[in-house]
Amino acid sequence: MSNDSISRRDFVGAVAATTGAAALATAPGLASGRPVAAADKVRLAIIGAGGRGNQLLDHYLKRKDCEFLYVIDVDDKHAAETADRIARSQDGKKPETGRDYRKALDDKNVDAVVIATPDHWHAIPTIHACQAGKDVYCEKPVAHNVAEGQAMLKAARKYNRVVAIGTQQRSSENFQQAVDAVRSGKLGKIFWVQTWNFENISPLGMGRYPDTAAPEHLDYDRWLGPAPKRPYNPNRCHLLFRWFSDYAGGMMSDWGVHLNDIVLWALDQKGPQAVSAAGGIFTTDDDRDTPDTLQVVYDFPGTTLTYSMRKGNGLPYNGHKYGILFCGTEGSLMLDRSGFEITPDTVELPYGIKLVHGDRPIRKIALEKASHKAVDEGTGTHIDNFFQCLKSRARPTTDIEIAHRSTNTTHLGNIAYKLGRKLQWDVETETFKNDRDANALLAREWRKGYELPEI
Ligand SMILES: NC(=O)c1ccc[n+]([C@@H]2O[C@H](COP(=O)([O-])OP(=O)(O)OC[C@H]3O[C@@H](n4cnc5c(N)ncnc54)[C@H](O)[C@@H]3O)[C@@H](O)[C@H]2O)c1
Predict the structure, then answer these.
(1) From the alpha carbon of 240, which atom of ligand 1 is closest?
(2) Burial bucket for residue 206 (CB in 10 Å: 0-12, 13-18, 19+)
(3) CATH superfamily of 8-170+382-398
């Protein structure tokens, strides 16, 4: 086993040796054990200081009630640049840097961690953080696969930690008001929902690149972590990892999670009863192995949801390149991060009915046209909520359980796409009904030394 591996035995041993049993305590409160009133500054470590990590810092660094003690990144360049950036807004107090997040978890002064690593590196540090008594803000999608999300949820509950996930739209007043409108019933019976992402990147996409040596400043083996070992390729690593199934779930999980999350919330559902999908790599000649064209159909009781994605044609749908459309018998609600519009419907006599039955009154629709302009997409308020929960110990707006279910819809879409058949889903047991092949895709093979920790 490599020295860098993260087996549970090694990890728990390391924590216990340095911080004693207190680090594994399940009692609520900040990990450092400070009384909440005295915790004028929450002490943080950021794990994963790439694109999103730095977007999150735009918000975290505005706060007066936190301080970063560590920047952990397997890329020394990202860690160093981000530590410099943090120092500039922390009166010169520069966080320690490192490649291995266990260094931050071993420090009893760290209250919570912010995880913005690629999807395949969400589960293991989240679980280890919970075991070390730290609270967690982890980016979406919850995990690379269903089993990892289940393990993260189990760890959050067992170790009594706050685990918030970065599906920040739920914290935006825009999405809150839109969901209230859908739930109010004024759109009538909601029976048809559409989510989508459209753009034209054909045919080149990210292109094709040869495998090459990894840069010196990157611990590439650790970047791979639980994913299979393979040569370094810049197209598969920073930022672009999301288009490869070893590390993520393509557009379906990268963006689909944000969209389907709002649908589950508005419909008050834990997940679909069934899923089917079709698609492929039809228009993009690049290195990706996830589809550039996808239609996923989900069955909910009395409602159908379709997630549509194409990367070979950018024609907007209802004027929007991405979005969520709720259709009810009284009208529709079209929603994205810029705002929402409510459009009343009109009722018609069915084709031919006039000839057979003569005139009859047409139902009048009372719904009024309305629109709302969004203030923002929610990240700032989402982080505010995380800080409130650190102190109150309440469940966050997108508690791990909520985001796990939303993420599952994206895993289901990808599994149905891979298998090419309709699958029946049991939302309570989170397994496919009578389908061994589909159930086998709920987990991954974790590379030796990077197995999912036992909880
Ligand atoms: N909520 C949102 O709106 C939103 C937006 C963008 C990205 N994201 C999510 O954020 C995550 C990161 O995406 P990104 O675009 O910032 O990717 P990125 O490649 O730019 O950044 C990831 C960083 O994590 C580092 N890293 C990888 N493995 C690590 C490990 N084991 N320990 C420490 N650091 C490690 C990488 O070196 C890199 O610096 C993804 O899960 C993505 O889906 C969320």
Answers:
(1) 19
(2) middle
(3) NAD(P)-binding Rossmann-like Domain (3.40.50.720)
